[in-house]
Write a structure and sequence with these properties.
The complex is a heterodimer. Chain A is α+β, with helices and mostly antiparallel strands. Chain A has helices spanning 26-33, 67-70, 78-81, 89-96, 106-119, 125-131, 143-163; strands at residues 5-11, 14-20, 52-55, 58-61, 74-76. In chain A, strand 3 and strand 4 form a beta hairpin. Classes of the chains: A alpha+beta, B alpha+beta. At the A-B interface, helix 1, helix 4, helix 5, helix 6 and helix 7 of A face helix 2 and helix 18 of B.
Chain lengths: 164, 805
């Protein structure tokens, strides 16, 4: 068994330091070590995106990243995007437009969508469909997920304009 | 309380009852990452289990050496069949009356079969130890084709006594499971032999898998001090799991608590009992620590709960004018290594005999032969009532083939054969009583909505253009009119392992006029906490927002048979309405007492009881709730609670009309859905937003199945589709846009007229997509081509028809 490594992460604004086997997957670090259970495991092969988190400003699939690779990173999960008193626009929008059913893909979906809307603040339906293609959902058929994201984009843009 | 400033309309909308597109109460936790799924559960000292699985599809297990695995730091136990045998748990009963190995007992019968169970400190150590278990196999001949299996001398199930009956009667070969028949065979054959027109076709509905995004898993915790077993798990039927666990383990049922927490999609995958559950329980009893087992995706696809795999040989007869006169069907059903279907006991082929569909067919016969092969067990109802998708696909393909035989438009052929509105309740030739329907109206609405005649004209022009070499794209118009059969019971017909398929609801009204309702079902994304509160809101006049709905904890919820086969609304929904009516009956007595009038002189109005003829004199349900607890009323017990166990008199028969318009590139085999129109009639609509969401999701699963998803094996029994790389799940990119519509024909026997909807889109969607592919090639002579219609297979159709020359 390989020696344990010293790992430092900033997760949802909190500094975390610990020893871990380098083979430990980031999703297990979050879920089992830190009890951050919003991101889920769906496939362990990068296909489904249920484990999506933000690592240094990029949406990545935490089921196929070793914690050693994430050493020193800043990580945001669904738990860090909003809180009950101040939800992220996307969190509200998914509820408003019935963009979820069983909820298992939802944290990954919303996390990925936050980055999509940063990259493409005013997306077309086609851009949303393409940009979200790394996140699978078995319940909704995506139609209401797309609707939720487009509505959130419109709302965020309106808020931006109002602020300017 | 005086609130007459509110209009009656305000009071109705304040309830958010039946018909309201109420936002879901579940969503707050799911959107914030606060759902609680099985793998989120952690208990102090919890161990992790992992399986050693067979790499072979058929082999004798010569020896298992666990020494190296046991020597690994952190490994607590390695269980094999030898360890389970003294407990009589090395085999377990299946829901279909067969038995299944929990851990390999002498041989393995499919690739991925459970051979040994490693229990370790964490999942990494468990996975390491799995690699260290040495298993010596002697390979045996593999049977992956059910027709070959019925001819072969190779005996798959050596545990079964040769010549002895199985759970469903005589077995005619050592790899045969049952022959199940319904209808009048002789009369049907006579009609077919003398018919003016007969169409014949063999339709294969390929093997696939429900593949919910969350795989199956459990946390078993045996508290040896108090003798109590707690089992958290991905269970679509938690109460059944408790009873089965009690029977298997010998632990009395009151000492077992089964909890289904949030479930990340089920689609039939989470109805059955799997070896992982049994091993986790045993491991917890052995070690005295909680044990978690969660399968990974590959294990999920390879070992738990396949669906379909039906070879359906059909003959349908008609007059020259197109009036159908008879239907004959023989199915060869590949059940894999163990018969682990989750059908009601009486129906080893589920409700396949709904296969006369939406048509008035005077005489019919169905025979189903179940067969063992070296494939994974299962045969679950993947987003459908038991085997109904197979039935709907069969009849909707046979109709299309008959239309070809008659040289007739398939929409018209359907229309002249629909069961007429005035024929309901309709007795089908295969024994079902359809409760209600208005097929012609729905069909006309659908054809009108897509401008069917224009589409046919466009298609004809396209064919001409193709023939002239002006285009390489064809246009397909996929038609489907389906009838579902959902909501099992009645108990007299439907049971699983002897447990009658009723369902239940228990309501407790709190003094301040809010309430908690508990049901025997369990949501896996359907939104029960939202919609069942709506049923109650309308029944008892308290706002849905003031009603908590709980399911899935057998210590608190009333006994019920769970959620699958679209049975929650037809059965538990009915129980909810009837329990609500019991509450209302008592509330009426209390209101009459408070208003100092006779019981018969008050009537229920939205959220209150009013004195007849004097609407200004009333008591709201909120006031009544408080009085129920706090006012001494002569002859009336304090409190306001009710429970209802509902055994439905019949099933419900939702129906729908789906039309898919598809563009097909003849040279690449790629397909593009240009339009998809879905009209559903699920009777009374509880929450239109949720219904629409269910339809979108079901259609997408249908799209997957029809257009690419399959569980495929090579001739050695290797599963070729064990990851999401090979097993097709559509993304947002290729999933089409859907237009939904509805008609509303209430069920006459359901208390609120509701029928169930979640599975209709899968039942109707698969033939709609598939028929679109067939329809595009019909002008070039295609009769039938098996699914899935992935690009290669579509290209192959074009190639076989000589369209690439």
């Amino acid at each position: 068994m390989p020696d344990k490594m010293h790992i430092q992460l900033t997760v949802n604004g909190r500094n975390e330091e610990f020893l871990a086997e380098p083979r430990e997957l980031l999703i297990h670090t979050l879920r089992e070590r830190m009890n951050i259970t919003g991101p889920h495991v769906g496939c362990e092969t990068s296909h489904c995106g249920a484990c999506t988190v933000i690592v240094n400003d990029k949406a990545i699939k935490a089921c196929t990243m070793f914690v050693a690779q994430a050493n020193g990173s800043e990580i945001t999960t669904i738990e860090g995007l909003g809180n009950p008193d101040s939800l992220h626009v996307l969190q509200e929008s998914f509820r408003e437009h019935h963009g979820l059913q069983c909820g298992y893909c939802t944290p990954g979906m919303i996390t990925r969508a936050t980055k999509l809307l940063e990259e493409t603040p005013n997306p077309t339906e086609e851009e949303v469909r393409f940009g979200m293609a790394g996140n699978l959902c078995r319940c909704t058929g995506y139609q209401n997920i797309v609707k939720s994201i487009l509505a959130a984009a419109a709302q965020m843009n309106a808020a931006q304009e109002a602020a300017e | 309380m005086k609130d007459d400033i509110q209009t009656r309309e305000d009071r109705v909308s304040n309830l958010k009852g039946l018909g309201s597109s109420r936002k879901r109460v579940e969503d707050a936790r799911f959107t914030q990452g606060k759902g609680n799924y099985v793998d989120d559960i952690k208990m102090p000292g919890m161990l992790h289990g992992d399986f050693v699985r067979s790499p072979h599809a058929h082999a004798r297990v010569k020896s298992i050496n666990i020494e190296q695995a046991m020597a690994l730091d952190g490994v607590v136990a390695v269980l094999t069949a030898k360890d389970l045998e003294p407990l009589n748990l090395h085999w377990m009963p299946t829901l279909a009356g067969d038995k299944q190995m929990v851990l390999a007992d002498g041989k393995v019968l499919f690739q991925g079969q459970e051979v040994a169970f490693v229990v370790a400190r964490d999942r990494y150590v468990a996975a390491d130890a799995v690699e260290l278990v040495e298993v010596e196999y002697e390979e045996l001949p593999v049977l992956v084709n059910p027709f070959a299996a019925l001819e072969s001398e190779v005996v798959l199930r050596e545990d079964l006594e040769a010549g002895a009956d199985g759970a469903h009667g005589p077995r005619k070969h050592h790899n045969h499971i049952f022959l199940w028949e319904e209808g009048d065979k002789v009369a049907t054959e006579q009609v077919l032999d003398n018919a003016e027109v007969v169409a014949e076709e063999t339709v294969y509905y390929h093997r696939t898998h429900p593949c919910p995004l969350e795989t199956c898993g459990t946390v078993a915790s045996m508290d040896k001090v108090n003798g109590k077993l707690t089992l958290y798990g991905t269970f679509q039927a938690p109460h059944v799991v408790r009873t089965v666990a009690s029977i298997l383990s010998g632990i009395e049922e009151h000492n077992i608590r089964v909890v289904s927490p949030d479930i990340g999609g089920g689609f039939g995958n989470k109805v059955g009992v799997y070896p992982g559950y049994v091993c986790a329980i045993v491991a917890s009893i052995v070690t005295g620590a909680p044990v978690k087992w969660v399968e990974d995706r590959m294990e999920n696809l390879m070992a738990t709960a396949f669906a379909r795999d039906y070879w359906m040989k059909g003959r349908i007869s008609a007059t020259r004018e197109g009036k159908i006169t008879g239907l004959h069907c023989h199915v060869t059903a590949d059940h894999g290594a163990f018969d682990a279907c989750a059908d009601p006991t009486k129906y080893p082929a589920g409700f396949f005999h709904i296969c006369t569909g939406s048509y008035d067919i005077p005489v019919a016969y169905v025979g189903v032969d179940g067969v063992y092969t070296n494939k994974a067990p299962g045969g679950v109802a993947y987003r459908c009532s038991f085997r109904v998708t197979e039935a709907a696909y069969f009849i909707e393909r046979m109709i299309e083939v008959l239309a070809i035989e008659l040289d007739m438009d398939a929409a018209e052929l359907r229309r002249i054969n629909f069961i007429k509105k005035e024929q309901f309740p309709y007795q089908s030739a295969l024994g079902w009583e359809y409760d209600s329907g208005n097929y012609h109206t729905a069909w006309d609405k659908a054809l009108e909505a897509v401008q069917y005649n224009h589409l046919r004209k466009e298609q004809a022009e396209r064919v001409e253009a193709f023939k002239k070499g002006e285009t390489r794209k064809l246009l397909g118009i996929g038609l489907t009119f389906f009838t579902e059969i959902v909501g099992a019971g009645p108990v007299k017909n439907c049971d699983i392992l002897g447990m009658g398929m009723f369902d239940s609801c228990e309501i407790r009204i709190h003094p301040t006029g809010s309430a908690i309702a508990r049901l025997g079902t369990i949501s896996q994304g359907q939104g029960h906490a939202t919609t069942f509160a709506q049923i109650l809101a309308t029944e008892i006049g308290l706002p849905a927002d003031s009603i908590t709905v709980e399911e899935g904890d057998t210590d608190t919820a009333p006994y019920g048979l769970g959620t699958y086969g679209s049975r929650s609304t037809p059965v538990a929904g009915a129980a909810t309405a009837l329990a609500g009516r019991k509450i209302r009956a008592k509330a009426q007595m209390i209101a009459a007492y408070l208003l100092e009038v006779h019981d018969d002189d008050v009537e229920f109005d939205v959220d209150r009881f009013v004195v007849k003829g004097a609407p200004e004199r009333f008591k709201t349900m909120k006031e009544i709730a408080f009085a129920a607890y706090n006012q001494a009323i002569p002859g009336v017990e304090p409190g306001l609670e009710a429970v209802s166990y509902y055994d439905p008199p019949n099933m419900t028969y939702p129906f729908g009309a789906y039309i898919c318009v598809m563009e097909i590139d003849v040279d690449t085999g790629t397909t593009e859905i240009r339009q998809f129109y879905a009209l559903d009639d699920c009777g009374t609509r509880i929450n239109p937003m949720v219904i629409e969401g269910q339809v979108h999701g079901g259609l997408t699963e249908a799209f997957a199945i029809a257009m690419g998803q399959e569980i495929a094996y090579d001739e050695l029994g290797n599963c070729k589709t064990g990851t999401l790389m090979d097993f097709f799940i559509p993304t947002s990119w290729e999933t089409p846009h859907y237009t939904t519509d509805h008609t509303e024909t209430p069920s006459p026997h359901h208390p609120i007229g509701a029928k169930g909807v979640g599975e209709s889109p899968n039942v109707g969607g698969v033939p709609a997509f598939s028929n679109a592919v067939h329809d595009a090639f019909r002008p070039f002579g295609l009769r039938h081509a098996n699914m899935p219609h992935d690009h290669w297979r579509v290209w192959k159709i074009a190639n076989d028809l000589g369209l690439h020359v």
